[in-house]
Amino acid sequence: MKKIKSFLFCLVQLTWGLPQNLAGGIGYLLLRGKYKQERYHYSFITYVDKKGFGGVSLGMFIFMNGSQSEEWQYDTRIHEYGHSIQSLLLGPLYLLVIGVPSFTWCNFPPIAKKRKAQGKSYYDFYCEGWANLWGVRWTKRRFITKSHLDWMEKKGKLKWMEKIAKK
Questions:
Q1: Rounded to 5 degrees, what angle do the CA atoms 49, 14, 108 make?
Q2: Helix crossing, 100-107 with 126-139: angle to 10°?
Q3: What's the N-to-C CA distance of the chain in angstroms?
């Protein structure tokens, strides 16, 4: 059954979600052998050691900072996998609905400055919070870092997370 699920996940990503998976697949192949790569559920993770880089999901291809703490990496895998699930749902709309807004929320200095000044969590933005919830739901893993746990508590989702996820 797991092989069938994996096949269907890849089939949908590579058809319905072709634009982001094409970009992600090219990146995955270009970085092969340069950085650690592994499977995570039905996705492929590349651990890029680049200062200031967090993570990005391009369909079933996840790129994240491999030089961060193990706890940060654990939670980031869950979060980025949530973005991979968004790609399954949104297909060709993913880059417009999730990719561009997420990139802007994270990297556009005036927005980052305003977010920090207002004390907003990075995960308060619709696409980031949604990725958290779907990451927990589909990986069945619980977050362990303070920033994620605080956000889950603020949203009233700690008990929900504990109910469906394992450590």
A1: 45
A2: 110
A3: 24
Query: In the chain, where are the structural domains located?
Result: 2-164
Tell me: the pLDDT tens digits for 62-100?
A: 999 999 999 999 999 999 999 999 999 999 999 999 999
pLDDT tens digits for range 4-50: 999 999 999 999 999 999 999 999 999 999 999 999 999 999 999 88
| Distances in whole angstroms, Cα of residue 137 to Cα of each of 56, 70, 96, 161 | 19, 21, 23, 8
CA dist 62 and 45 (Å) reads 5
Contacts of 82 (CB under 8 A, 6+ apart): 130, 131, 132, 133, 134, 135, 136, 137, 138
Angle between helices 126-139 and 70-90 (to 10 degrees): 100
Shortest CA distance to 112 belongs to which of 127, 129, 96, 124?
124
pTM of the model: 0.94
Nearest-CA neighbor of 119 among 147, 100, 158?
147
The whole-angstrom separation of Cα 44 and Cα 58 is 10
Which residue is associated with the tokens 């590579």?
14
